[in-house]
Amino acid sequence: MQSIFILLLTLGCIGIVSTYQCYQCDGDIKGDCNDPFNATGSITDNDKREAPPGAACMKTKRESTGGSTAERRINSNGLYYCIGGQNGCKKYNRDGITATVCCCTSDLCNGVSAVQQKPLIVSLIMSTLAMFSYRWC
């Protein structure tokens, strides 16, 4: 059981340091970039970019009385523009426009409507809890 924990811990660390890709598109130019996002429509491999170290994938959705549009890109400024945190969202209003800014740090995570956590980290936490409960029960 301990060797499984060490293996999962090692794999989790590899996933954390590995690079990931972000979608980079503008809903004003490509309609499939808007919500609901359609990765199989006009979105191609050219709309995927490798995120540099310290960067985050970002999705900004702007809504007004005229409709809504989404932009997906890489936030190279790190967490500076991630007003909702590294893996979160925050909504704000300015000049009659409601904007929701979401940042995330996993592969193509800005292509979903909600920010997703890495499944490997969830598995690691569950395995750790299982190991501790097995040991004390």
TrEMBL record:
Residues 1-19 form the signal peptide. It comes from the Eukaryota. One of its GO terms (biological process) is sleep. Coiled coil: none annotated. Residues 44-69 are annotated as: Disordered. Residues 60-69 have a biased composition (Basic and acidic residues). InterPro entries: QVR-like, Sleep_regulator. Keywords: Glycoprotein, Signal. This is Protein sleepless. The lineage of its organism: Eukaryota, Metazoa, Spiralia, Gnathifera, Rotifera.
